[in-house]
Amino acid sequence: MNVAETQSVEQSAIRKVSWRLVPFVALMFFINFLDRTAISFAGPNGMTKDLGLTAAQFGFAAGVFFIGYIVLEIPSNLALHKFGARRWLARIMVTWGIVALLFTWVSSMSGLYTLRFLLGVAEAGFFPGAILFLSMWVPAKHRSHILALFYLAQPLTIVIGAPLAALLIEAHGLFGLAGWRIMFFGVAIPAILVGVIAWFYLTDKPADAKWLTPAERDWLTTRLDEEDRAKGASAAKGHGNPVAALMSGRVWLFALMYFGLIYGLYALAFFLPTIIGGFETRFGTHFNVFQKGLITAVPYLPAAIALFLWSRDATKRGVRSWHIGVPALIGAVSVPLALQMGSPAATIGVITVTACAIFSALPNFWALPARFLSGAAAAAGIALINTVGNLAGFVAPYITGMAKDMTGSYQLPMLIVGAMMLMSAALAFAIGRTSQERTPEAVAANAH
Questions:
Q1: How far apart are CA 113 and CA 116, in angstroms?
Q2: Which residues span the membrane (predicted)?
Q3: For residue 9, which of 106, 266, 367, 434 sits 20 to 30 Å off, Cα-Cα?
Q4: CB 402 within 8 Å of CB 267
């Protein structure tokens, strides 16, 4: 093929991947994030009172999810690499949907802890598996764009999910159940249904995709094989060896950077509905359940827009460390300021800035590890980064709740969030100073 024909095949192949796979995997991620954060909507709307939870106990229940998740994350991602994404992601989704459904009938604090732990076990490997799956479908030149489209599902989960959860909670009394129990039931069923569909819908790799033309399959397979060989040839990129990836200092720096970003994400996700619920005491305002759901959604729509625009800039320039460092720094400064504001509108305004910062950094972050890892090393390295990062998923809600119980306010917890995001910003800029400018992604962008 000549250059024009090759470019045409490239554009059509990436377009088909963008439309065929990304929306469906993003839907899976939407349901995934909604199910793991559903507890944040249940807590201030009856669950905390019905089960007699303190803020620290609620935080522990939110965070214990990540213990089970972390224990099985790396084995799960290696299993996905071995058995294929179609089977493994579908299995994960159906399993977590069944566990999520059981929250409908939880009746004690210990039962809540147990189900949250089991939900983490069931979900283990989904997110890094989805990242790995999409990375195996697109060359480095297009990866940040594809991951940004995928990541849009996360803020949109709250934009759509918070009002949806509020509507389900307002169905209090249906089937004789409390509203928060109906909400758990309503968000669990889609996981089971979409998981079954995924078994038949997903395709493991470009060579198996009947919905691509032969030319498109050949182009994708050739480009991805070339990149894997280039990665495997470089000692700095781990030789595709999972043990080398797990021992890599660079991988561990990425893991710490991700820890800070995830700390901010989950402190916000699990406690924002509770903070909004406290507006009545703090400012003398009153909102019904649905209005609180709408307010919870407010920061996340601008965050989705910021994510898309920031990632589009990163795709044009090639992802640089400052694409992660600048948003992380903005988040570090803004999040402690939120609770210093004198009105609900000003508080939500500053929290919106924080949400925009977190979601602008996250998809661009994931474009960096994929430059240095391939094959089983990618499976192990990405899972390790996500595992260490998700320790923050346990630590953040527990420390946030414990600090709230100790001080009576969320000001100290939000200062801790700011410190964690400042660490991520510092690591991003440090990695930027020690990395070469001519990254594989930049080389690929200039060569095609």
A1: 5
A2: 21-43, 55-76, 88-107, 113-134, 146-169, 181-202, 251-277, 289-310, 322-339, 345-366, 378-400, 412-431
A3: 367
A4: no
> Which domains can be identified in the chain, with CATH numbers?
19-204+230-447 (1.20.1250.20)
Contact 271, 365 (CB under 8 A): no
Within 8 A by CB and 6+ apart from 305, the residues are none
202-209 own/partner pairs: CB under 8 Å, 24+ apart: 202/21, 202/24, 202/25, 202/85, 202/86, 202/89, 202/90, 202/133, 203/21, 203/86, 204/84, 204/85, 204/86, 205/136, 205/137, 206/13, 206/137
Kindly report the number of other CB atoms within 10 A of residue 377's CB atom: 25
Per-residue pLDDT reduced to its tens digit, 4-36: 888 899 899 999 999 999 999 999 999 999 998
Report the pLDDT value the prediction gives residue 441, as an integer from 0 to 100.
42
Contacts of 226 (CB under 8 A, 6+ apart): none
End-to-end CA, the chain: 14
The per-residue pLDDT for 239 is 46
Q: Which stretches within 373-410 are classed as H helix?
A: 375-407
Average pLDDT, the chain: 86
Tell me what percent of the residues of the chain surpass a pLDDT of 70: 91
**Residue 440 pLDDT more than 80?**
no
Taking only the tens place, the pLDDT of each residue in 371-422 is 666 666 666 777 788 778 888 988 999 999 999 999 988 889 999 999 999 9
Closest CA to 231 of 374, 435, 445: 374
Cα angle for residues 115, 117, 122 (degrees, 5° grid)? 90
Please report which confidence band the pLDDT of residue 439 belongs to, taking 50, 70 and 90 as the band edges.
Answer: very low
- C-alpha 391/C-alpha 393 separation (Å) is 5
